[in-house]
Design goal:
Blueprint lengths: L2 H5 L6 H23 L3 E3 L2 H31 L3 H30 L3 E3 L2 H22 L7
Antiparallel strand pairs: 1-2
Helix pairs in contact: 2-3, 2-5, 3-4, 4-5
Length: 145
């Protein structure tokens, strides 16, 4: 075994690598929003990075909640249970924007502002689309189908 093999670092876990890439993508998108939307404010780059980490955590919780509610919707067999599950899906999707706004306000106060409901909705959509685009870009051509 050569010295190079002994000193080589093990590749990161795929989930950890994906989370790090997501945070970097979120930082870029968040800073673009801060540059072009006057209501989106982050006083420093460090705060942008910390906000991106917070957004990653909150949005992961929202994605898990949404997945569970959608699974419940698919399992529903009666019309009233489907209606209730659809209302829950809407509540998670709609309420997640307020959760993001409140989490950012509680953690960072006036030093970070994501604007209002409309700007945070556009931000979250942009974050998710950007994340998906970067993940797709980083997949090898053999993994795309």
């Amino acid at each position: 075994m050569s010295d190079r093999d002994e000193n080589a670092m093990a590749p990161p876990e795929p989930a950890v690598a994906a989370a790090m890439i997501d945070v970097f993508v979120y930082v870029v998108v968040l800073n673009l929003f801060a540059e072009y939307l006057p209501r989106v404010i982050s006083e420093t780059f460090t705060l942008s990075l910390l906000t991106a980490i917070l957004l990653k955590a909150v949005l992961e919780v929202v994605v898990v909640a949404k997945s569970r509610v959608i699974a419940r919707f698919r399992r529903a067999s009666t019309f009233p249970s489907k209606v209730m599950a659809a209302i829950l899906v809407w509540a998670v999707v709609f309420g997640s924007k307020f959760l993001v706004l409140e989490a950012v306000d509680v953690v960072f106060g006036d030093r970070v502002s994501l604007g209002g409901f409309l700007s945070v909705t556009l931000l979250i959509i942009s974050l998710m689309l950007s994340r998906a685009a970067v993940r797709r870009l980083l997949q090898g051509p053999h993994q795309r189908m």
